[in-house]
Specification:
single chain, about 450 residues, mainly alpha, Fumarase C, Chain B, domain 1, Fumarase C, Chain A, domain 2, two-stranded antiparallel sheet, two-stranded parallel sheet, elongated
């Protein structure tokens, strides 16, 4: 069944090409399509397009469908084009003409817009929960290893003294920034497009603010053309947020790959967390982190993919948008997979602090010497030149007595302040409110 079909069916080859992988992707939207329909029929009753009795029996059947989705017994039957058609077919088979009334006042366009926004909200919630676990692991490791020294590098060359606490803590704060971007994207997505129909509204007196409240949205996408233009734009915003997370996790993975090289010797992985070589018996490859790096690089390519698909399209709906599901849905899976893997393997990383007296790392302390001379009254440029001459002449002697006290330095990690950053942004996500609104809709059908 196709909601748009009249007397002439599309040629089988046309149908196969235009449907593509949409049926497979639509199964992910099933629970959200039902929730959207529950809200829609509540509204239809208030404007007289459904009687209270019709709305009641529709709601009961929608809840039955919802439970089958949760039980993973729901399927898209052969010949059914999409999730919206499947739900309507089931209702019509069970309830007759009452089931056909569910489509009143909406188009397949705003149905899929709604389903996607509900799905993206849920996807962001899962990712935020995964990020939170990693954030607190980084915080814990930073506190645990706050006094363990490691070299800092620029240009892949020895630069200044650092610590494992500083290094681990940097990833926690980077995740806090990624969370802020996630919150901004969530706020944009969290606007209700339902009622925009095919992008030009409806002559029915729809109560769009009612469905906004029922589905736990922050507000409406008021202008109906703008609501339709949210298709593609929502995916692009989401892609940018995923790319930001990918940048943080991918850069961390690269550090682990580099620092676990025996020539660096700063980290190691247990044997069971590495792979070997088919001909080199000594090899212990950090494949997990190489794959994390690769998957995160793919996440960083996502905004470009979405942009290239959509950037030259005029206002209104275009079938090109269907392909966005094949880009964005797997990307959400990849982000969750990377977060889950990192959560498992982080506690298994073994650090190898350096000794401040190790001659290999003596030059890490040149800046400390420069600063000591400046504190003693010497102009900075003169102190810099003097220490440089010591290095050139081989007479430089490091002083490992460190005095880093400013905010965010190795002696003052400000972990509590970073945690406050995280918690402040986390409060912006209305996950509990949304869950409560969904629960209310489902109770209405019982």
């Amino acid at each position: 069944m196709k909601l748009w079909e009249k007397d002439t069916a599309a040629a089988p080859r046309i149908e196969s090409f235009t449907v593509g992988k949409d049926r497979e992707m639509d199964l992910r939207l099933a629970r959200y399509d039902v929730l959207g329909s529950l809200a829609h029929i509540r509204m239809l009753e208030t404007i007289g397009l459904l009687t209270p009795e019709e709305r009641k029996i529709l709601a009961a059947e929608l809840v039955v469908i919802f439970r089958s989705v949760e039980a993973e017994t729901f399927i898209l039957a052969s010949g059914i084009e999409d999730i919206h058609s499947q739900v309507e077919v089931l209702l019509t088979r069970r309830l007759g003409d009452v089931g056909k009334k569910i489509h009143s006042g909406r188009s397949r366009n705003d149905q899929v817009l709604l389903d996607l926004r509900l799905y993206f909200r849920a996807g962001l919630e899962d990712i935020v929960q995964g990020m939170e676990g990693i954030f607190y692991q980084f915080q814990s490791l930073a506190k645990q290893h706050r006094h363990a020294l490691m070299p800092g590098y620029t240009h892949f060359q020895l630069a200044m003294i650092s610590s494992y606490g500083l290094w681990f803590g940097s990833w926690a704060e980077s995740l806090a920034e990624d969370l802020a971007l996630m919150a901004a994207v969530f706020g944009i997505i969290n606007h209700n497009p339902l009622g925009s129909a095919a992008g030009y509204g409806s002559s029915f007196p729809l109560d769009r603010k009612m469905t906004t409240d029922l589905l736990g949205f922050q507000d409406l996408s008021y202008n109906v053309i703008h609501a339709q233009m949210g298709r593609g734009k929502s995916e692009w915003f989401l892609a940018v947020a995923l790319a930001s997370l990918g940048s943080t996790l991918g850069k961390f993975a690269m550090d682990v790959v580099l620092y676990s090289n025996p020539h660096y010797g700063l980290l190691s992985l247990p044997k069971e967390c590495t792979t070997g070589s088919s001909i080199m018996p000594h090899k212990k490859n950090p494949d997990v982190f190489e794959l994390l790096r690769g998957k995160c690089n793919a996440l960083q390519a996502l905004p470009g993919q979405v942009s290239l698909l959509t950037h030259n399209l005029p206002a209104g709906y275009h079938r090109d948008f269907q392909l966005l599901k094949e880009m964005v849905f797997p990307a959400l899976d990849t982000a969750l997979e990377c977060l889950g893997m990192l959560a498992w393997i982080l506690p298994r990383l073994e650090i190898h602090p350096i000794s401040p007296n190790d001659p290999r790392f003596a030059h890490l302390f040149t800046v400390e010497k420069v600063n000591d001379l400046v504190l003693g009254g010497m102009p900075f440029r003169d102190a810099y030149r003097q220490v440089g001459e010591m290095v050139d002449q081989g007479t430089f002697e490091p002083n490992p007595d460190l005095h880093h006290v400013h905010e965010g330095s190795i002696g003052n990690l400000c972990l509590e302040a970073v945690e406050q950053k995280w918690e402040k942004v986390k409060k912006e996500f209305p996950f509990a409110y949304i869950a409560a609104r969904y629960a209310s809709l489902l109770r209405d059908g019982n």
